[in-house]
Amino acid sequence: MSRSSVKALAAGSASGWVGRKLASISVLPVMISLLILAVLYSVTIGRYDLSVTDVSYILMDNVHPLTIPYWDPVQEVVVEQVRLPRILAAVIVGFGLSVSGAALQGLFRNPLVDPGIIGVTSGAGFGGTLAILFGLQGYFLLTMAFLFGIGSVFLVKLLSTVRGRTSMLTLVLAGVVISAFFSAAISIAKLLADPFQKLPAITYWLMGSIASTNYLDVLLVAAAVVPSSVAIYLLRFQINILSLGEEKARALGTKVVLVQWIILIASALISAGVVATSGIIGWVGLVIPHVARVLVGADHQRLLPVAGVLGAIYLLMVDNLARTMTTAEIPLGIITALIGVPVFAVILRQLHAKGGWSSD
Amino acid sequence: MIEARNLTVERGGRIILRDYSLSLERGRILSVLGANGVGKTTLINTLIGVLKPKSGRLSIGGQVGFVPQLFDVPFAYSAFDIALMGRARHLGLFGAPGKRDYEIVRHYFQMLGIEDFESRAFNSLSGGQRQLVMIAQALTSECDLLVLDEPCAALDYKNQDKVLGLLEHLRDTHGMTIVFSTHMPQHAVEIASDVLLMTSGSKYVCGQTEEALTAANLTVLYDLPIARADFGGLAKHTYAPVFRHDGARFDV
């Protein structure tokens, strides 16, 4: 092969690479700026009115203390203890669900996949339900949800591995089976639960909410989401290749099995962390990657970060609706489904019309 | 370049190829012919390393590039995105393509004359264009052996001619060794130096095109009369099937 002729090119035009670098950064900074604006705006809204300036000063005070704070200490508590933790939780949860959704859709070569498909969501849901049923709260609930979520992924792996080989199709089917099993188990738990105290607690928890988030919850969900998202992002080019199909990826020299398992485990960690702290929030991981694909195309190098930031903005806005629309909190899962379903229906029709994906 | 001794390959617990031996020198073109289901794809998957032989020895003296049969991608990747994936082998697990990788892809796009549609969606390209993009993908992996699974299937005559011409050009200018499967003996007549006629999983004929590619061997291969046909006035010939021989009818 004429490697010398390739080297001789080094002096030639690099507009392709530079052009692509520009394309990849022009959307992302806009998205990140929007996210920062969305965060600032979200701190101001609520029953206790604050201006963006007040919020900025209160937050700045932590980094660079002002000599004479001019604001009411109550305002500081509202900003730093009530609103900021749940805003951070919304950002992290939205980011994690969207990144893992985009990665799983690429891995399974199927735009209808979401983080719930590998069984982890309903597994973690059952763990949390069980904790509430036994009267366990707080960190016991988190731990139970997390352990059952991770456990269900290993069950799925066990079910889908035959003679040391795991097919991705069998894995999806095993995920559906395990999800159905844990859904039934949740129903049994609800049936056994005390209908006045525990049943409503279970029901509301499952519908998804980040209303009572504190900084420790934020830390826990960040500990699950941040390293997993980094691992997924590092595999961004491998996900491109795997989305051509396993055999083609193998022919291109990719370590198929290793990449598949890193992504599955990272996604499981994200989902388990999210369900443990926030309950079941559907549709984000399914819909947001599609919207991001419209913005930056299918290449996962550009798609993953944009999908993550877009998901963060989206879930933050949804949470703002959840806490301000009515006097009572609306569970997040309900709003994400109400918005997600029609948006997804439109995307699905457009994809179909454009022939942008095949069903095999 | 390829040295296979007593190769036996299994797929799904069933032996597909038994005791295959073949060798191919650097800079030669091998055409693989055989009926559907005889194991052409299995052989190709073994050569590219996707399938491991159950027994026997296979050694390949260089990097292998693979061009699969025409396919759709599940997402709206551009032609350039697809070709760039050929760089995978050079990037490592956590790597992403950099400036040099983009230059290499661009180089092959220019060489194949397809730079005009590098930003077009892969799925929107015609069969002939996709085949060129996939050949570009294989070339960007900087391979020494190019393996193609039915590169001319689903292409019109003009595009078949173009692909065959390109393969010969790659052999002549880059010293590329090429293996391709086909259902048309004419493709082998035109560019192959060697042919492999796969009659069954354990019976095959392998040799230089002039000796092994004969009407008699092809008749056995396809279980159908095959006749040699010379093009009047051209120093060229082909092999064509005699369909509905003896007024053959479909019977159950």
Keyword list:
heterodimer, A: 360 residues, mainly alpha, two-stranded antiparallel ribbon, globular, B: 252 residues, alpha/beta, six-stranded mixed β-sheet, three-stranded antiparallel β-sheet, 11 strands, 26% strand
Description:
- The complex is a heterodimer of chains A (360) and B (252).
- Chain A starts with a helix and ends in a 6-residue tail after the last helix.
- Chain A has helices at 3-8, 15-44, 52-63, 73-107, 120-133, 138-160, 168-192, 198-207, 215-234, 236-242, 246-251, 256-278, 284-296, 300-324, 332-354; strands at 161-162, 165-166.
- Chain A contains 15 helices and 2 strands.
- In chain A, helix 4 (73-107) crosses helix 13, helix 5 (120-133) packs parallel to helix 12 and helix 6 runs antiparallel to helix 12.
- Chain A is globular, with a radius of gyration of 22 Å.
- Chain A has 360 residues and is mostly helical.
- Residues 1-15 of chain A have low confidence and may be disordered.
- The longest helix of chain A is centred in the N-terminal third of the chain and has 35 residues, at 73-107.
- Chain B is built from 8 helices and 11 strands.
- Chain B has a 6-stranded mixed sheet with strand order 5-6-7-3-8-9, with helices on both faces. A 3-stranded antiparallel sheet of chain B has the order 2-1-4, covered by helices on one side.
- In chain B, a hairpin with a 5-residue loop joins strand 8 and strand 9 (204-208).
- The radius of gyration of chain B is 19 Å and the shape is globular.
- Chains A and B meet through helix 1, helix 2, helix 10 and helix 11 of A and helix 2 and helix 3 of B.
